[in-house]
Design brief:
five-stranded parallel sheet; Arc Repressor Mutant, subunit A; Rossmann fold; about 280 residues; DNA-binding transcription factor activity; about 10% strand
Length: about 280
């Protein structure tokens, strides 16, 4: 896992911040480009917190000092002043930033553990609600085409029943940006009683789901873009899925099975065209 940028550090440590530290974090997020020009006294006064709060905040986010925080923010917010930005450039920059941010968060050891767990599992159950449920469905279809036994559950009650039927040789993967989705938490507790291997894909460290899971994969939050018009909450989840698929398809058997299912679909489409 590479050195984290400010947005990732703030997201990962959010649950450990006091109310005044969270207020300071919000102020910095709203004025990131100006922070490097401020003294610690000026920042404290502007954010209506104490100098000591700024110092504690920097240490909790693993900056050696306020000066180091300013230096990092200066580099992260540096822009090309001669570049005109239309909608394609703006959204493209969001994509680039979020993928780069997620690359910093993903622990290669945890990713390898998840891939090994997927290969070893007797049955894989994927759970997610809302947008995460749609991502879980895509996850299911791609794994199924590689010859794996996999189910996707997006209904809270079905999650509980499904979790109850899982065993020690199975794998439960929960997708939740917040890590606090109650239906998933309940399903994980039930699965844990049956010694099921559990993985979560989420934005937040130290969430309830990450405390239950055996394997945790972190992704960057869309909130780190600080623009309410950019609403793609699943972009970084799909980045992780692509990393997983790429590794799995390095297995010749899985690659061959996917190729066969793809060819079957292509043949079916060709036959339908010929019939018309």
């Amino acid at each position: 896992m590479n050195e984290l940028n400010f947005a990732n550090r703030l997201t990962q440590e959010q649950k450990h911040l006091s109310k005044t530290e969270s207020t300071l974090g919000d102020y910095i997020v709203a004025h990131m480009e100006q922070i490097s020009q401020l003294t610690i006294q000026q920042l404290a006064a502007n954010a209506k917190v104490s100098n000591a709060t700024v110092t504690r905040f920097c240490k909790k986010l693993n900056y050696a000092s306020f000066a180091e925080l300013k230096s990092y923010l200066s580099r992260e917010t540096k822009k090309d002043e001669h570049k005109e930005e239309g909608v394609v450039e703006v959204v493209g920059t969001f994509y680039d930033t979020m993928v780069a941010s997620s690359k910093m968060l993903i622990d290669a050891t945890q990713l390898a553990a998840l891939i090994a767990a997927i290969k070893a599992a007797n049955k894989i159950t994927l759970c997610g609600i809302g947008s995460s449920g749609l991502t879980a469905n895509e996850f299911k279809y791609q794994l199924m085409r590689m010859g794996l036994t996999v189910d996707c559950v997006t209904d809270p009650h079905m999650m509980l029943m499904g979790a109850k039927l899982l065993g020690p040789d199975d794998l439960l993967i929960c997708l939740s940006n917040s890590g606090e989705t109650q239906a998933l938490i309940k399903a994980c507790h039930i699965a844990k009683e049956n010694q099921v291997n559990i993985c979560t894909l989420t934005n937040f460290k130290d969430s309830t789901l990450t405390k239950i899971a055996d394997i945790c994969i972190y992704t960057s939050s869309v909130k780190s873009m600080h623009d309410g018009r950019f609403i793609n909450t699943q972009l970084t989840m799909f980045f992780v899925l692509d990393c997983i698929f790429y590794e799995l398809l390095g297995d010749p058997v899985m690659y061959d099975k996917r190729s066969k299912t793809l060819q079957l679909i292509l043949n079916e489409e060709s036959q339908l065209k010929n019939n018309h």
